[in-house]
Amino acid sequence: LAKTTQPISMDSYEGQEVNITCSHNNIATNDYITWYQQFPSQGPRFIIQGYKTKVTNEVASLFIPADRKSSTLSLPRVSLSDTAVYYCLLNQAGTALIFGKGTTLSVSS
Amino acid sequence: AAGVIQSPRHLIKEKRETATLKCYPIPRHDTVYWYQQGPGQDPQFLISFYEKMQSDKGSIPDRFSAQQFSDYHSELNMSSLELGDSALYFCASSLGYLDTNGYTFGSGTRLTVV
């Protein structure tokens, strides 16, 4: 049973803001929400992690509503190099990350 | 900054042979993970170690085994290789399972079984 659900694919243009929403209706109290980016033939790269409300770093923002049943990764002003697969994962102490189906983001000029 | 080092980068083996993949985590990281990613597939968790002890197990075949050594490097041993084992194998490391900097993945070992 998938722990998270996210769109299979998204398209965008350079300079636009991209928001990828992830559903996790059965999130546990001790789950953190984490996002990774993966380019072809490369290992996944950590983007951001949060527990509730909003988290922002130099590359993205993560919005988590009060009920934590969903989250939204926001990528400001994407470029061609942001074309990649984005994974939404639930992370908790003592257990490894389990990757599900990610979102393939295609950015065009 | 130091990264996760995996060796070899590429490996070609014949069916029924054995293979050993090595992983050197980031210094001071105490948790190591192994993932397998087949062509067009998402990464599949195999096994993880925390402080040199196996701590979580995923879909690792019985033909595979792994261990973490006193210097924290880890090795994934694969026996009786099958064509279906052809994949990218990633190692990752972190400071605990909830590292605020996430897991750091290596560049992977591409295993081809012929």
Radius of gyration of chain A: 13 Å
**Total number of β-strand segments of chain B?**
11
Largest sheet of chain B: 7 strands, mixed
The average pLDDT score of chain B comes to 95
For the biggest sheet of chain A, the summary is: 5 strands, mixed
Number of helical stretches of at least 4 residues of chain B: 0
Spatial extent as radius of gyration of chain B: 13 Å
Element order, helices and strands of chain B? Answer: EEEEEEEEEEE
- Overall, the morphology of chain A is globular
Which regions of chain B have little confidence, pLDDT < 50, spanning 5+ residues? none
Assign the structural class of chain B, choosing from mainly alpha, mainly beta, alpha/beta, alpha+beta, or little secondary structure.
mainly beta
Task: Describe the structure in your own words.
The complex is a heterodimer of chains A (109) and B (114). Chain A is mostly beta strands and 109 residues long. Chain A has a five-stranded mixed beta sheet with strand order 1-9-8-3-4, with no helix packed on it. A four-stranded antiparallel beta sheet of chain A has the order 2-7-6-5, with no helix packed on it. In chain A, β5 and β6 form a beta hairpin. Chain A starts with 8 loop residues before the first strand and ends with a strand. In chain A, 35% of the residues are buried. The model of chain A has no long low-confidence stretch (mean pLDDT 95). With 114 residues, chain B is mostly beta strands. In chain B, 0% of the residues lie in helices and 50% in strands. In chain B, strands 2, 4, 5, 6, 9, 10 and 11 form a seven-stranded mixed beta sheet that branches. In chain B, strands 1-3-8-7 form a four-stranded antiparallel beta sheet, with no helix packed on it. In chain B, β4 and β5 form a beta hairpin. The chains are: A mainly beta (109), B mainly beta (114). Chains A and B meet through β3 and β4 of A and β5, β9 and β10 of B.
